[in-house]
Specification:
about 130 residues, Immunoglobulin-like, six-stranded mixed sheet, four-stranded antiparallel sheet, elongated, disordered N terminus
Length: about 130
Amino acid sequence: MRTKALLALTIGFAFFTALFVGNVSAQTVSVAATNLTLSASGTGTAPRQSVTFTATLTSGTKPLSAKPVTIYYYHNGVRTDDVTANTNAHGQVTETTSFASAGRLNYYATFAGDSSYAAATSSGLTINVG
């Protein structure tokens, strides 16, 4: 059996840097496109008469259920949320409201998006009360 002796002497300082260059894979998260529409039972009404709004959220032709959608309006530049609710099996949220006084309100619906589906906002819908 052979044995070897190793003698090491340290004089001064040595600095070493290790660099790892490996495979780095970027993950791209893609979400499905969505479409959000808003309709109303009427766009002209009198004070104290009801209007029913329906927001419908889809991805392609598929209705999206259990997704939070907010129906809101702007009046004099101020946003007011009417309702935030999860969509039903048909991808819809409905809200029935009446108006205390005459005026013009711009309604919208919005979905903030999630890990599977993109955010969406409906086109505006103007309600003339008077």
